[in-house]
Amino acid sequence: MTKPFRFGLQLHSPIDGMTWADSARYAENQGFDSILMPDHFHHQFGIFTSLAAAAAVTTRLKVGALVFGNDYRHPVMLAKEVATLDHISEGRVEFGIGAGWMRTDYEQSGMSYDRPGIRIERMVESLEVIKRCWTGEAFDYEGEHYSIAGYEGYPKPFTPGGPKIIIGGGGPRMLRVAARHADIVGMTANLRAGEVGVDAIADSMSAAYDAKVAGVREAAGNRLDDLEFNSLTMSTSITDDSAGTLALFAELFSNTVEEVSQSPALLVGSPAQISETLQQRRERWGFNYVVVQQDGGQGMERFNEVIATLAGT
What we know:
The chain has twelve helices and 14 strands. By secondary structure, it is of the alpha/beta class. The radius of gyration is 19 Å and the shape is globular. The protein has one domain (about 5-310): Luciferase-like domain (TIM Barrel, Alpha-Beta Barrel), CATH 3.20.20.30. Helices cover about 40% and strands about 20% of the residues. Helix 1 (about 20-30) packs across helix 2, helix 2 packs parallel to helix 3 and helix 3 (about 75-90) crosses helix 5 (about 115-135).
């Protein structure tokens, strides 16, 4: 089932020349459906304070993280903060969660950087605890990684049943988890190396995404028609010289122009060309929820033309 397009803007701090509040208003005025933040320990504002402020100065903009690193917060704490944010925003939260991946976050904070399988298992347990917290009923939980005794979550989220859940990942196991537990599947390159390096770039190409989407569709089963597919664009270049820009990316990534032009991590071209590209990607992979970064390219002041063409269609 084809889902209508919607667009998110990922920010780690205010847009150049704007305050944080002005940045949130700008995103809403440009037609973005959401403002989202990464979750790392360096070069970004604190998430909950920023998202609460963004919600307070807008009226329809959804707010959230893409995505919360599970290991950085105990699930009881995370459940409370997200539910509170859902009240402040009157139901405009999207709850993104992942297993944590950036090695420097762990090294600089002194946390143990466990192998991916353990981090994924811990995240699955955490999500179960969070959902139990959101019922508002006292519960016990005994897992491999978390132990809860007689806890009664407060507040319950403003949204009945809790906010929509985004699970982001790039490896087969994480994407199967997303297919089974998320409302929105956020697909990225596989970041098992703990950094955005050669492996991640190679896993950002179109053939890799064919395999990712096929795996999600198989794992989702009868949930498939209810899922949204999300893609994060790492670099958006709105330009009338798409050939020249793509040639630069091809050289940078040691790949062909044809291949980099199809990578979901990149958007290059005029607003009309980008609109056509996104329609092709939705047809091929189902990506209807497209997130771009303000500082990830050039010409972003014109992205509202893409939104005006595609949003809701």
